Amino acid sequence: MRKITFRPGFEHDYRAASDRYDGERLGLGNEFSEELESSVRRLIENPESFPLMDEIVRVCRLRRFPYGIYFRVSRNEVVITSVIHLHRDDSAWKSRT
């Protein structure tokens, strides 16, 4: 099994999005968190099944929310770098990987 590493920016992205959704409707931030956790489990199970965004970065799109989890895969490790709104400029995820 590969080692899983979360980069510091991931936590910030996650909390900011969750807080934003809670501001829209109480409890929506929790729903976002549950969807994010489910998506992280999916990507850990089979990281190579997700599309490449460039030569090394892959993205796992959340099913219910317009966010993607950006990550890199090596033989021994999955490095989860960020969770970013899919409508943001590509430079948002490129600067984190």
Short description:
With 97 residues, the protein is α+β, with helices and mostly antiparallel strands.
Verbal overview:
The chain is an alpha+beta fold and 97 residues long. The chain has a single domain, classed as RelE-like (YaeB-like fold, 2-Layer Sandwich). Helices cover 40% and strands 26% of the residues. It contains three helices and four strands, in the order E-H-H-E-E-E-H. Strands 1-4-3-2 form a four-stranded mixed sheet. A hairpin with a 3-residue loop joins strand 3 and strand 4. Helix 1 packs antiparallel against helix 2. It starts with a strand and ends with a helix. The relative contact order is 0.21. The model has no long low-confidence stretch (mean pLDDT 91).
Give the number of domains.
1
Stretches where pLDDT falls below 50 for ≥5 residues? Answer: none
By DSSP (H or I, 4+ residues per run), the number of helices equals 3
CATH architectural grouping = 2-Layer Sandwich
CATH topology: YaeB-like fold
Strand elements, count:
4
What strand order characterises the main sheet? Answer: 1-4-3-2
List keywords for this structure.
3 helices, 4-stranded mixed β-sheet, 26% strand, alpha+beta, 40% helix, YaeB-like fold, 97 residues
Sequence-ordered SSE layout with sheet pairings:
Elements (H helix, E strand, L loop, with lengths): L2 E4 L1 H17 L3 H18 L11 E5 L5 E7 L3 E9 L5 H4 L3
Parallel strand pairs: 1-4
Antiparallel strand pairs: 2-3, 3-4
